[in-house]
């Protein structure tokens, strides 16, 4: 189907990424998979390639663009190859918007040059062991010292993608108690140096999928955070988080669509090569009907993902529209990948086949960034229900 979201620059970037994956990632990806993370020096290669600087102003070493379309190409190409780039997605999609939106000029001068090169990798620490979708229920605290020079951070976070390799983490913590009128009041955001005394990484979590993306538990015991590393204003953290949720949910939606598209590619290749009863699996009517139905769903998901991308780039993607895109694209991907795995038969269950890894990787899309149930609640509220 004809698409209008990408131009020649995006297609040139696509060729660069495809060649990079073939040369630098595909040959060693099984090693990453076995290790449970991408190696730290891989992020320097992404920095050299310019991936981290696309949306960073030129004065800090970036390309100075303001678009998510290159990220979209990256989603498509990594899915197509059956790989992922570790915690780098969090670095760009989740952390960078907060730096651009909240950091002072002084902070940007300190943070962004190292962000662009991969010298400092960033993560976002929001979820706690007892609070997932209920962000307002967080227990981590940051108390201002008596001399006003620093905050003292105490608490724990979990499910932190990129948490093992992160050099800086945007930590959400309570600087004040919630009020009777607003339980979301009192949350603040901090840029925390992971080398700080009292900061520790707990377990590297053993996940069902996304095996090459390091995910960790973090703990803070009397961690001193200089006041110069407060992002934005005190107690407005929940508002800031809400500002960036649409872009995060678009990213999950687009990534899920890209995975579904890749699943069809893997299944097509397999059924044309695999023979049963002396005939290619592709020759059976059921195979044709299954793949045709999957293609129709992916065509629809592509249109939804592209429309959300255009709205995001124009600054017009609403929370309800982002929720709708995430709900639709992740549910489509769930159905399509399952059907494509079925066409692989027993081999579809083997991790040496990309469809098996894709099946496991995809499952979290309906959970993180807000569960499908939360997305339905947001959509229903926008409908006046």
From TrEMBL:
Family listed: Belongs to the acyl-CoA dehydrogenase family.
Keyword Oxidoreductase: yes
Protein name, entry field: Acyl-CoA dehydrogenase family protein
Cofactor(s) in the UniProt record: FAD
Domain Acyl-CoA oxidase/dehydrogenase middle stretches: 123-223
PANTHER family per UniProt: ACYL-COA DEHYDROGENASE, ISOVALERYL-COA DEHYDROGENASE, MITOCHONDRIAL-RELATED
InterPro entries to which the protein is assigned, alphabetical: Acyl-CoA_DH_CS, Acyl-CoA_Oxase/DH_mid-dom, Acyl-CoA_Oxase/DH_mid-dom_sf, AcylCo_DH-like_C, AcylCo_DH/oxidase_C, AcylCoA_DH/ox_N, AcylCoA_DH/ox_N_sf, AcylCoA_DH/oxidase_NM_dom_sf
Upper lineage: Bacteria, Bacillati, Actinomycetota, Actinomycetes, Kitasatosporales
Domain Acyl-CoA dehydrogenase/oxidase C-terminal: from-to ranges: 235-383
Pfam families per the UniProt record, alphabetical: Acyl-CoA_dh_1, Acyl-CoA_dh_M, Acyl-CoA_dh_N
Domain Acyl-CoA dehydrogenase/oxidase N-terminal stretches: 7-119
Keywords tagged on the record: FAD, Flavoprotein, Oxidoreductase
């Amino acid at each position: 189907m004809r698409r209008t979201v990408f131009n020649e620059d995006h297609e040139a970037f696509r060729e660069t990424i495809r060649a990079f994956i073939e040369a630098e990632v595909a040959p060693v990806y099984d090693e990453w998979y076995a290790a449970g993370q991408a190696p730290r020096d891989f992020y320097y290669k992404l920095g050299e390639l310019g991936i981290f600087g696309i949306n960073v102003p030129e004065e800090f070493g970036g390309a100075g663009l303001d678009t998510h379309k290159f990220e979209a190409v990256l989603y498509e190409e990594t899915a197509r190859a059956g790989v992922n780039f570790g915690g780098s997605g969090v670095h760009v999609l989740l952390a960078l918007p907060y730096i651009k939106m909240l950091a002072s000029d002084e902070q940007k001068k300190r943070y962004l040059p190292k962000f662009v090169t991969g010298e400092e990798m960033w993560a976002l620490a929001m979820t706690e062991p007892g609070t997932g979708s209920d962000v307002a229920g967080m227990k981590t605290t940051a108390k201002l010292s008596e001399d006003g020079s620093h905050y003292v951070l105490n608490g724990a976070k979990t499910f932190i993608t990129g948490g093992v390799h992160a050099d800086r983490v945007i930590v959400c913590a309570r600087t004040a108690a919630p009020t009777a009128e607003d339980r979301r009041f009192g949350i603040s955001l901090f840029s925390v140096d992971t080398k700080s005394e009292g900061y520790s990484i707990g377990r590297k979590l053993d996940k069902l999928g996304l095996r090459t993306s390091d995910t960790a538990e973090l703990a803070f015991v009397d961690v001193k955070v200089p006041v110069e590393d407060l992002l934005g204003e005190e107690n407005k953290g929940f508002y800031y988080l809400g500002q960036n949720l649409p872009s995060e949910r678009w990213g999950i939606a687009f990534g899920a669509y890209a995975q579904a598209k890749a699943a069809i590619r893997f299944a097509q290749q397999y059924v044309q090569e695999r023979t049963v009863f002396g005939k290619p699996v592709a020759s059976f009517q059921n195979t044709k009907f299954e793949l045709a139905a999957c293609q129709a769903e992916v065509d629809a998901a592509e249109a939804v993902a592209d429309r959300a991308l255009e709205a995001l780039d124009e600054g017009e993607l609403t929370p309800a529209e982002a929720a709708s895109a995430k709900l639709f694209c992740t549910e489509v991907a769930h159905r399509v990948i399952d059907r494509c795995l079925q066409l692989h038969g027993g081999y579809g269950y083997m991790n040496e086949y990309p469809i098996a890894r894709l099946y496991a990787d995809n499952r979290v899309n309906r959970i993180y960034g807000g569960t499908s149930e939360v997305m339905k609640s947001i959509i229903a509220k926008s409908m006046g229900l």
